[in-house]
Design goal:
The structure is a homodimer of 474-residue chains. With 474 residues, chain A is α+β, with helices and mostly antiparallel strands. Chain A has 4 domains: 2-102, Uridine Diphospho-n-acetylenolpyruvylglucosamine Reductase, domain 2 (2-Layer Sandwich), CATH 3.30.43; 106-224, Uridine Diphospho-n-acetylenolpyruvylglucosamine Reductase, domain 3 (2-Layer Sandwich); 228-339, Alpha-Beta Plaits (2-Layer Sandwich); 342-432, Alpha-Beta Plaits (2-Layer Sandwich). Helix content of chain A is 34%, strand content 20%. Chain A contains 17 helices and 18 strands. Chain A has a 7-stranded antiparallel beta sheet, with helices on both faces. In chain A, helix 1 packs antiparallel against helix 3 (59-72) and helix 14 (363-377) runs antiparallel to helix 15 (407-418). Chain A is globular. At the A-B interface, strand 9 and helix 17 of A face strand 9 and helix 17 of B. Chains A, B: It comes from Rhizobium miluonense. Chains A, B: Keywords: FAD, Flavoprotein, Oxidoreductase. Chains A, B: Residues 46-225 form the FAD-binding PCMH-type domain.
Chain lengths: 474, 474
């Protein structure tokens, strides 16, 4: 499936090119051969398949690198934390990887404005830590926070657990600086939410996975960090019941809903049994489990809100289970039931995974249809399903290893999961992007006008195909 | 200043072109001559300067009109409510105005998803009314709600009073359908917040003022409509004090901040004296007045929150005044002090007005500098200043009629107000857009790379310059 990432053209870099790059960044910041092998390749070894890796320290150095690469027709693969799941960072011989790891400064953090200006290589976790000193948070969170960079999260339009409340990365970005494929510097580092001064072209770079420009600095909105949180796990009979709980969470009087994460039965049984988790009166066989977290000023009041939600929902659905975390340790245990997805891949090597956005009113019928049709493809299929219920983002992972999936079976599964998803107002790729892995699916499922328009825009911006060639639009 | 809107080329439309358009929409939906004069031109008579006005009823009709206009090289000026303040809708002989007024259906309104799908010509007010039936609201509000259309608000990336909380129009749009300059239909009507399926090119049409495509349908996020609201007016010594009140409003435990509108002294004195507004112990001479509104479940609790804010702020600034509205009628009276901007224009015909975004930490020094430098240009200048404090959007209107402003004086004023605004992270055009009136200022103040990139994108998308020529980028 990664064949879309294979690049034609020279599979080496000329010594004159490498010499010029060395001039720009200093010899120590251009890695080749053994020195590349010493770097952390992140999610996939193929991320570091390039001939050389350059580590610039400034926007000006990046602009100079791009101009040099353009002159020599060398493709640039920009990489942040190398945590992407769809092969957006894969590189091959003859290419240059540009790592943003040295662009790691928080340039400005204003508590009055609730805005941070950061370089692209700052990790989410370090921005979270710096924001927390002012009782603020970035308004976006995801499990790879320790390595995922803000630049990478902008380039992939990252989502995560708070998107229903604070939006995806696109909605967090106020201003941006980026290097265009001709090596010029696009400078629009506003720190205001209102800006109607012409086309807002920074949105071209958001979610473009490094194909239209290289994001170098970002001004981001921050949000108040609540003084207290409270978390409960509900065992529920249906998606409708889980949406009822979510709506009650959205309507609390004290504090606000921070997360509403759904865990369907088979995934819940996997994580709860592996972590030996159980609770008195909590039946592990509910069709859907919902983890909800509230944030606010006072933990006790938040726990009372959770108790009230339980009472209200139990009136309508008497068969539910619920447990409220009584400590931060218990809260962390409940979150592990949702977040420890590694358990799946340890059991099923390379299990095919999907990342679907479904409008809330369509989740139930979508899942019913898919599960029944998947069962028809292979009666052994009992996929792990979990995700961000409040925004309709479902993660669906097959209980099958990659080795057991011939291409035609994979194609049949995709036809089930992606078929009609646009017609019901959803998206076949919610938050992981397209990279190399999903190029063929984008081509097959996108509105033809939309897909042609993407290619037209890309050709207009990067006529020489210097930036991350073959990714996203193919 | 409107000279940028003058279009070269034929100043009439051929009968063959008009005949083809009549074929598409029916004779009754193509207006010429007298029939145009009977239409409401909105903010400026020049909006209806075109030879003909077409009123299509569907996306397909619009696509056919665009293909026909392209073949005949006739410019199309798309219009919604004709409420724009910067001449984005101005039209001239030889052009075709395309009105979205017949695209006025709310296609879908889902309380479960909290999403509406509307045609472009639906007014904000009718969407507000339809949403309110489900105790929802569009999350965006502005005084021209009765005539402003959703399509127009998308095309201008409208802001208003709720942007600090719910974002600007760009942040409200989930999905879109639009007609491209070649007459093809871009279809991306997703109803989900997470969509990483390739470039999100709908953002090109948002805020493009009808120059890159014609927005035909929009899927919009809705927000819960609070059961109760409470409003107070504070008289304060400084911007710092007003930001303190705003922050206290953001941190209330019951409900949430809905609006924080600042009214500087001279505008306050104008509206309060014209409306004969006064309140016991409310000193009308405070440097800044701040109108704040809370929304939540219980009016009494919200009013208690306002009283607590007063007590907290009065400890720090003992000289403040405050009045809490005791009824909806009093609430409306307070809002009139902020919103009745017509009073200015009745006193100073065509008073030059500016719409600036300033990062919160820069507002005080920005205003001090500007007021002092304006005073140096003309000692009679005592501008009316008011705006959306929580997002830093200042409206500045000169106490001078257009007749008293020779071009070099206007240029000097712009140099003061726009000078250095990008360097401090703001924007010279916050929410009104560029239209024809601000083209020269955009050209003069924009980052050259950014401006060149805008022109490059426009040329790539609309090579024949069919859509709203000369607007925005010139």
């Amino acid at each position: 499936m990664m064949s879309g990432a294979t690049i034609e053209g020279p599979t080496a870099l000329s010594s004159s090119f490498l010499g010029e790059i060395r001039q720009i960044v200093g010899a120590g910041n251009l890695k080749e051969g053994e020195a590349i092998a010493a770097l952390d390749y992140g999610v996939a070894a193929g991320n570091l398949g390039a001939t050389a890796v350059v580590l610039p320290a400034s926007t000006e150095e990046i602009a100079a690198i791009v101009r040099c690469a353009l002159a020599h027709r060398v493709p640039i693969i920009t990489q942040g934390g190398r945590t992407g799941l769809v092969g957006g960072g894969l590189s091959s011989p003859g290419q240059l990887v540009l790592s943003t790891s040295r662009l790691n400064r928080i340039v400005q953090l204003s508590p009055i404005e609730r805005v941070a200006v950061v370089e692209a290589g700052v990790t989410l976790q370090s921005l979270q830590a710096a924001s927390a000193e002012h009782r603020l948070e970035p308004g976006i969170d995801l499990p790879s926070r320790g390595s995922a960079t803000i630049g990478g999260m902008v380039s992939t339009n990252a989502g995560g657990i708070s998107a229903f409340r604070y939006g995806v990365m696109r909605h967090r970005v106020l201003g941006m600086e980026a290097v265009l494929p001709d090596g010029s510097i696009y400078s629009d580092l506003t720190r205001v939410v209102k800006n109607a001064a012409g086309y807002d072209l920074k949105h071209l770079f958001i979610g473009a996975e490094g194909t239209l420009g290289i994001v170098t600095r970002i001004a981001l909105k921050l949000e108040p960090l609540p003084a207290a949180t409270a978390t409960a796990l509900f065992g529920l009979p249906s998606v409708a019941a889980a949406l009822d709980v979510t709506n009650s969470g959205l309507a609390v009087h004290h504090g606000h809903l921070r997360a509403a994460e759904a865990i369907w039965r088979s995934y819940f049984q996997l994580t709860s049994s592996e972590h030996l988790w159980s609770a008195v009166d909590y039946d592990p066989n509910h069709p859907v489990n919902l983890l909800i977290s509230l944030g606010g000023g006072d933990e006790e009041q938040l726990q009372m809100e959770l108790a009230q939600i339980y009472e209200k929902v139990a009136e309508k659905y008497p068969e539910i289970s619920a447990v409220v975390a009584a400590s931060q340790a218990q809260e962390a245990q409940l979150w592990r039931l949702r977040e420890d997805t590694d358990l799946i891949y340890r059991k099923h090597a390379g299990a095919p995974s999907y990342d679907i956005s479904v409008p809330l009113s369509e989740i139930d019928s979508y899942l019913r249809r898919c599960l029944s049709e998947l069962h028809r493809i292979d009666p052994q299929f009992d996929p792990y399903v979990f995700g961000h219920l409040a925004d309709g983002n479902l993660h669906i992972v097959l209980n099958a290893s990659a080795a057991n999936m011939p291409p035609e079976k994979t194609a049949a599964v995709e036809a089930v999961l992606y078929g009609g998803i646009a017609a019901i107002g959803g998206s076949f790729s919610a938050e992981h992007g397209i990279g190399s892995k999903r190029v063929h699916s984008l081509r097959e499922t996108a509105d033809p006008t939309k897909f042609a328009f993407m290619k037209q825009i890309r050709a207009a911006i990067d006529a020489a195909s210097i930036l991350n060639p073959r990714k996203v639009t193919g």
